[in-house]
C-alpha cells in the first residue's frame, strides 16, 4: 500500500511539474507572437499599399491564433495543472491514514509482546493477565478497524487515480486538438493572404514614384548657356597662295 502511494507521489508530482512548465512555455510563445504581430503592423505602415494591406491582414490572422493560444493556456491551467496539484493533498491525506494504520498495528504488536512477558513472569497472576488481555483485545479491535479503513482508503485512492489519469490526459489532448484545429484554419487563411499578394503592383508603384522623383529633380536643375565663339573677320584671313 505504501508503494502504491509512493509511486503515485513520484509520477504525479513529475506530471504536475512538466505540465506546469508546458503551460508556461505556451504562455511565453503567446507573448512572443503578440510582439511579432505588433512588429508586422509597424512594418506594414512603412510599405507600399499592396504590401501594407497584406501584412496588416496577415498580422490580424496571427493575432487570432494568439487568442486561441490564450484560451489553450487557461484551459490547461484549469483542467490539467490544477487537478495534478490536488494530488499532493490527496497523497498527504492517504499517508496520514497509513501512519494511523502503522501506529495501531504497532500498538497491537506491543500489547501482544507485553501479554507474553506477563504470562512468562507471572503465570499465576490471573488478574494481571486478564488486564493485559483486555488491552490486547482493544488494540486488536483498533488495528482491525484501522486496517479496514486503510483498505477502503487505498481502494478509493486507486479508483480515483485511475479515473483522474484518464480524464486529465483526455482533457489535455482535447485542449490541444481544439487549439491546433482552430490554429490550422487561421494559418490557412494567413497562407492565402500571403500567397495572393501581388508584388508587381507594388513594384510598379515604387518605380512610378522613383520616376516622378527623378523627373522632378531634372526639371529643377538650372540649364547652362554656352558662350558663342568670337567670329573671325574675313578681312584678316590670309589669302590662298594660288590666288595670285
What does this structure look like?
- With 244 residues, this protein is an all-alpha fold.
- The chain is rod-shaped.
- The chain is 85% helix and 0% strand.
- Helix 1 runs antiparallel to helix 2 and helix 2 runs antiparallel to helix 3.
- The chain has a single domain (2-214), classed as Up-down Bundle (Substrate Binding Domain Of Dnak, Chain:A, Domain 2), CATH 1.20.1270.60.
- It has helices at 2-44, 49-121, 126-195, 199-220.
- InterPro entries: AH/BAR_dom_sf, BAR_CBAR1/2, CBAR/FAM92.
Write the layout of secondary structure elements.
Elements: H1 2-44, H2 49-121, H3 126-195, H4 199-220
In short:
This protein is mostly helical and 244 residues long.
Sum up the structure in keywords.
mainly alpha; 85% helix; disordered C terminus; 244 residues; Substrate Binding Domain Of Dnak, Chain:A, Domain 2; 4 helices
Please give the largest β-sheet.
none
State the secondary-structure class: mainly alpha
The overall number of domains is 1
Distance between the termini: 145 Å
The secondary-structure element order is: HHHH
Count, helices: 4
Mean pLDDT: 86
Helix content: over 70%
| Proportion of residues in extended strands | under 5%
Give the C-level CATH assignment: Mainly Alpha
Shape: rod-shaped
CATH architecture: Up-down Bundle
CATH superfamily: Arfaptin homology (AH) domain/BAR domain
Low-confidence stretches: 231-244
Q: What Rg do the Cα atoms give?
A: 45 Å
CATH fold node name:
Substrate Binding Domain Of Dnak, Chain:A, Domain 2
Number of strands: 0
Subcellular location: Cell projection, Cilium; Cytoplasm, Cytoskeleton, Microtubule organizing center, Centrosome, Centriole
Main location: other
Region (Disordered): 221-244
Family: Belongs to the CIBAR family.
Amino acid at each position: 500500500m505504501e508503494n502504491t502511494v509512493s509511486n503515485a507521489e513520484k509520477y504525479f508530482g513529475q506530471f504536475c511539474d512538466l505540465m506546469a512548465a508546458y503551460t508556461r512555455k505556451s504562455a511565453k510563445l503567446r507573448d512572443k507572437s503578440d510582439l511579432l504581430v505588433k512588429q508586422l503592423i509597424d512594418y506594414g505602415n512603412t510599405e507600399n499599399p499592396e504590401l501594407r494591406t497584406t501584412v496588416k491582414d496577415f498580422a490580424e490572422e496571427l493575432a487570432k491564433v494568439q487568442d486561441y493560444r490564450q484560451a489553450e493556456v487557461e484551459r490547461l491551467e484549469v483542467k490539467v495543472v490544477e487537478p495534478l496539484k490536488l494530488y499532493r493533498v490527496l497523497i498527504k491525506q492517504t499517508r496520514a491514514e497509513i501512519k494511523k494504520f502503522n501506529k495501531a498495528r504497532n500498538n497491537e504488536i506491543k500489547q501482544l509482546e507485553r501479554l507474553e512477558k506477563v504470562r512468562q513472569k507471572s503465570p499465576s497472576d490471573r488478574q494481571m493477565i486478564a488486564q493485559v488481555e483486555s488491552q490486547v483485545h482493544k488494540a486488536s479491535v483498533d488495528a482491525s478497524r484501522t486496517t479496514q479503513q486503510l483498505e477502503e482508503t487505498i481502494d478509493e485512492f486507486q479508483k480515483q487515480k485511475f479515473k483522474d489519469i484518464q480524464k486529465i490526459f483526455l482533457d489535455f489532448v482535447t485542449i490541444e486538438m481544439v487549439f491546433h484545429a482552430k490554429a490550422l484554419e487561421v494559418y490557412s487563411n494567413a497562407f492565402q493572404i500571403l500567397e495572393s499578394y501581388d508584388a508587381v503592383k507594388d513594384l510598379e508603384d515604387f518605380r512610378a514614384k522613383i520616376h516622378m522623383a527623378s523627373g522632378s529633380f531634372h526639371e529643377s536643375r538650372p540649364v547652362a548657356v554656352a558662350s558663342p565663339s568670337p567670329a573671325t573677320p574675313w578681312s584678316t584671313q590670309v589669302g590662298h597662295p594660288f590666288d595670285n
